[in-house]
Design goal:
The protein is 73% helix and 6% strand. With 232 residues, it is mainly alpha-helical. It has a 3-stranded mixed β-sheet. The protein starts with 5 loop residues before the first helix and ends with a helix.
Length: 232
């Protein structure tokens, strides 16, 4: 039986185009909202520290990191890392990002199941990512001789795809916590809340597209495997 992989090629290309659009839209949104000052006049650093304090979290530090859109929470050393602009800015986008990253700290402090599962996957995936591309390459090059390397590569790649999908509820939940808190605490006005929500939505879409792209790539390798197997 012949395995038709044409739809998979189309999905991969479409995912790449959508990913480019989402990244462009995200940058433009953050650039737009960073120009609008908060009426509360709080910086990203101050908002992050206030949110942590409100949730009784005293062992997490808020630090500045180089780059743009490099914001993240590190559960290993318990730091909320805010990009230089978010750390110092007093804007709707800075408020959204700072609160979102603190949302991850709250997840960590409350043992949020999806975050725990994702964190448990990180050590294994960090090792897998080093040699997985080489195994997949060897699998494609050796496909006429044996399917074993490609099969192993597909299994390993499926772990990275699983990780990308596990990330989705973690990110959406952090944004939900962030938006609820900045509203409850009076950090933003209704108009600023709408901008913060919009910025976080576009940020979340980057993870959605990444997950879909990973799945499409996995299916691409599966299609190669199935097609070669059927021709044997």
């Amino acid at each position: 039986m012949y395995y038709n992989s044409s739809p998979i090629y189309f999905i991969v290309i479409l995912a790449m185009l959508v990913s480019w659009f989402i990244q462009w839209r995200l940058r433009s949104k953050f650039e737009q909202y960073s120009q609008i000052g908060l009426q509360s006049n709080l910086s990203g650093k101050q908002i992050a520290e206030l949110m942590l304090a409100d949730h009784g979290i005293t062992d997490v530090r808020v630090i500045s990191t180089e780059g743009r859109l490099t914001d993240h929470y590190n559960p290993a050393d318990k730091t909320v890392n805010l990009s230089e602009s978010v750390y110092a800015e007093r804007s709707a986008s800075a408020a959204a990002v700072a609160a979102h990253e603190c949302g991850h700290a709250v997840q960590h402090a409350t043992a949020y199941a999806a975050l725990q599962f994702r964190s448990a996957m990180v050590p294994a995936l960090s090792n897998v990512s080093r040699f997985m591309p080489w195994i997949l390459l060897a699998g494609v090059l050796m496909i006429k001789t044996t399917l074993i390397p490609l099969g192993v590569g597909i299994v390993l790649f499926s772990l990275t795809t699983l990780f990308s999908f596990v990330t989705l509820p973690v990110e959406f939940d952090a944004s939900k916590r962030a938006l609820a808190w900045i509203d409850r605490r009076g950090i933003v006005t209704p108009q600023e809340h709408a901008m913060a929500k919009d910025a976080l939505w576009w940020a979340a879409m980057t993870y959605v597209v990444a997950a879909i792209s990973s799945l499409a790539t996995l299916l691409y390798y599966v299609s190669i495997f199935m097609g070669s197997r059927d021709r044997r």
